[in-house]
TrEMBL record:
PANTHER family linked to this entry: P450, PUTATIVE (EUROFUNG)-RELATED, P450, PUTATIVE (EUROFUNG)-RELATED-RELATED
The species this protein was found in: Rhizopogon vesiculosus
Keywords for the protein's UniProt record, in alphabetical order: Heme, Iron, Metal-binding, Monooxygenase, Oxidoreductase
Protein name: Cytochrome P450
Entry GO MF terms: heme binding; iron ion binding; monooxygenase activity; oxidoreductase activity, acting on paired donors, with incorporation or reduction of molecular oxygen
PROSITE patterns registered for this protein in UniProt: CYTOCHROME_P450 (PS00086)
Signal peptide from the UniProt entry: none
Length: 117
């Protein structure tokens, strides 16, 4: 269902406008409507899953600066090819991940020490 080309935009392209109401051919299905199942068989943990991902991503963005790696750190979309199969995921790409503050770095070191025993 998520791979259908019903919006007129190739499903492999990053094009968030396919979900906008102003899009000429806005026939794309809302992914949330089918991701967790339908009717009586809908996933009871869907809200927990959504909230867990939201908290993880906001914590990551709040704690780290994530930018393209290398000398030319322009802020552009990375054109990353995807691997296809049972699951679809991007090929490896280089990024630079740095803590936003010394406090975050110290907390990470402390947690690593606690985990190592």
């Amino acid at each position: 269902m998520s791979r259908d080309n019903i919006s007129g935009i190739a499903p492999d392209n990053f094009a968030p406008e396919r979900f906008l109401d102003t899009c000429v051919k806005n026939t794309a299905l809302d992914p949330y409507s089918y991701t967790f199942g339908f009717g009586k068989r809908i996933c009871p943990g869907r809200f927990f899953a959504d909230n867990s991902i939201f908290l993880f991503v906001t914590g990551l963005v709040a704690s780290f600066v994530i930018s393209p790696a290398g000398p030319d750190e322009r802020h552009t979309l990375l054109e990353t090819p995807f691997r296809h199969g049972l699951m679809r995921f991007p090929e490896s790409f280089q990024v630079c991940i740095l803590p936003r503050s010394k406090q975050v770095a110290e907390e990470l070191k402390e947690r690593a020490r606690d985990k190592s025993g």
